[in-house]
Structures are given as C-alpha cells and as structure tokens.
C-alpha cells in the first residue's frame, strides 16, 4: 500500500480512499489491505491528529503500534520521510468517518448521484409528451391489468424487484440471537408504525386542509415504511449494516400485513375519507394492490436471491450480480415517473400550485422524523454512557429508517386504487423527488454530528483510553501512534 503523507486535508482524503475501497472489497480482502497507522511528524496538530487516530482505531479495530520514533527517541532521532504503512493482517471491517465531500459523494453510484436531476428530467419530458403528443393517455389505457395500464404495471413491478432482492432474508434468524437489540427493534417499530404515520397525517392536514385528494396521497406515502433507499443512506452515514438489514426484513413483512388496514384507518377513518367523494379507499383494492405490487416482486426477489446465492457465491452475488441488476430498480422508477407525468401532463400544467404545496408536508416530515429519532438515541447514549447498545451507528439506523419511506409501494398502490391520472398518484410521485435530496443532506449532517456530539463511553473521541494499546507485562499504556502530517 502506498505510504500516507502530505498535508492534513490530503491525509484525510487518502484515509477516505482506504475506506471507500472497503465498500467494494470483501472483508477478508480488506484485512490484507488495512495498514497500521504510524507517525514520524511534528506535533503542531497533535490534538486533531490524536482525535482522528482514535476514530480510526475504533472504526477499523486496528491496533495502534507504538510510534517508532518515540521508541527510538533516546537512541536515534526521527528522520524525514514518508509515513510507513506496514500491512495489518488482522483488522475487521467497520465504518469509516467520511470526512471529505468528494469521498462521500464518490460512494454513491452514478445513478444514485443523478437520481434527483433524472427524476426532474423525466417529469419535464413526461409533461411535454402529455401536453403535445395527442392520444397518449388512450395509448396507455389500451391494455389494462387490475385497473392499471400494462406499461405502468410493468414499471411498478420492475422497480420493486431488485430492491427486494437485496434484502437479507437469511439474516432474520439472527434476530433471535441478538437479545440486546430487542429494545432497538421495539423502538423502531414504535417510530415507524405508530409515530411516523401519525406525524405525516398531522402534517398533511395542517398544510393541505383544502386539498383532500393530494392530502390522501401524502398520507399513503407516510404509511409505506422504507425498505430500499434506507440501506444506501445507512451505508453512507456509517450505520450498523446488520441491524439495518434486520429492520428491512421486518418492515418488508409488516408492510404486506399492515399497509391495507393502515390505509383504511388513516385515510377513511382518521383522515375523514369516508365522507369525501373520491378519497375513500377500499380494503380489498388496497390488499390486492399490495399483493400484486409487493407480493410478486417479493417472491421474485426471494427466488432471485436464493437462486443466485445457491448457484454461485456470496462474493459473486454482491460484487458482480447486484451492481449489474440493482440499477434496474432506479430505471423502473424513472420509467414509471415518465409514463405517469405523460399521462397527467395537461393536468399538472393547470395545477402547479397544489403540486408545489405537496412539497411542504414531505420536507417537514423527513426532517422531523430524522431529527427526533437521531436526537433520541443520542440522548440515550449520553444518559446511559456505560451501555454500548446506544451508539452512533444505531442512531443512524433509527433515524434513516424512521425518516424515509417506501415511495415505490405508495406510487403503486395509489395508481392501482385511484388511477394513474389521479391527484393521489401525483402526490405520491413527489415523494422520491423530495426524499432523495433531503436525506442525502441529512446523511452529511449525521457524519458531521458524529464527531461533534458526545456518544457516551463507546464513542467519546476525546478519550484515549480505548485507543491506547497496552503493554500486557507492564500494564501501562504504550504511546499512541498518531496520524500526523508533515508541515511543509
């Protein structure tokens, strides 16, 4: 591995390159690449270097070596040269700090980075097609499947299939082995299935009291818990990937069971849809829609996952198959949005005011839910500092799971129940346009707060007790091997 050197900012970028490579590398391979962190530099930035070292040692579980220059100080002064980076054969993979925006953005795939502008582009192109191409709506309605045009139905199923292929169903049994996570799972269920829908309901009524059709679409978005993009946000913000995978499995199963009765409860009963024409949802229609547009992709996802894993290897599945198959979900989403806006082009141009008003409750919802969950876990971390269950990585999982939604399912159900040209479907389509940039910004906020907030005993970056290697015979701490830079 190339030696680490240069100024402090450049050094951070080099460390980020190491971290980024871990996202594309098998853990066993990373263990061969992970370096010891050593030093031979002036101490002008000793405090900052010491802080960064502690984070690295905790994140990567890399045992710090005694600084060679400090050991040899009495016999030989430190010499000028690049930092040495001997190979470390035993480190385990863990999240990195994510300090540079360039490195942070580089961890997103090209489609992920361009998702928001691509959604905007598809909306604009769709509106243009719908306004200036004659009989486009009639062409979409030529062949229908369960009240949904076949072009739309294909897009809805395709965009869910890769998402549900990524879910680690085989990890569900681990739920019963991790007893210390029961409290986290209970907290997540409360945030996702009680507080979240109620917050969205309140915001929809507060901001859209005179737009019942758009309000119903916003409520339907709030009922669909995220099972896809949350894994991307969790990875970028350095959350606990194993716990996130378990929550995704739980939410996938619960959505099949709960989405239909929740729609009836929040739209018809609490939301007042039973007394408003065109708002009321039918339980049977929602249940059939969930079965088709979540059940079929779920079955295809399970079949694809276990078939590929059985015929090949886990390394092939994650490093070869998913990078090829995964983008199909975003392409399916973009295709569905393009067709929807082509279908509603004329309607959108004459209702721009209500369309932009839909942004308000969604932005507020994502920010409120994310902040509430993140601050809650942080406060528990401070209060119960000796309990390592309340950590930064758990705060990330809770925040992004509570603050994001399965807009694909909401779009599918609103189209199937209300029609592709309905206000409800249009409101649901605004979901990804708002969610992606807002949660991307919140990912950056999480990384910033990681080192600015005190995370109890386990994440206290200022404390060096967890970073200092000890001489077992003498039972005294060895000098910290600080990550330093040469001031030129």
TrEMBL record:
PANTHER family: ARSENICAL-RESISTANCE PROTEIN 3 (PTHR43057:SF1), ARSENITE EFFLUX TRANSPORTER (PTHR43057). Residues 71-91 are annotated as: Disordered. GO terms for biological process: response to arsenic-containing substance. It comes from the Eukaryota. The keyword Secreted does not apply. It is a multi-pass membrane protein. It holds the Pfam family SBF. InterPro entries: Arsenical-R_Acr3 (IPR004706), BilAc:Na_symport/Acr3 (IPR002657), Na+/solute_symporter_sf (IPR038770). GO terms for molecular function: antimonite transmembrane transporter activity; antiporter activity; arsenite transmembrane transporter activity. GO terms for cellular component: plasma membrane. Keywords: Arsenical resistance, Cell membrane, Membrane, Transmembrane, Transmembrane helix, Transport. Gene3D superfamilies: 1.20.1530.20. Belongs to the arsenical resistance-3 (ACR3) (TC 2.A.59) family. This is Arsenical-resistance protein. Its main location: membrane. The chain crosses the membrane at residues 114-133, 145-164, 185-208, 214-233, 245-270, 290-309, 321-343, 355-378, 399-420, 426-449. It comes from Phanerochaete sordida. It is found in: Cell membrane. Residues 76-91 have a biased composition (Polar residues).
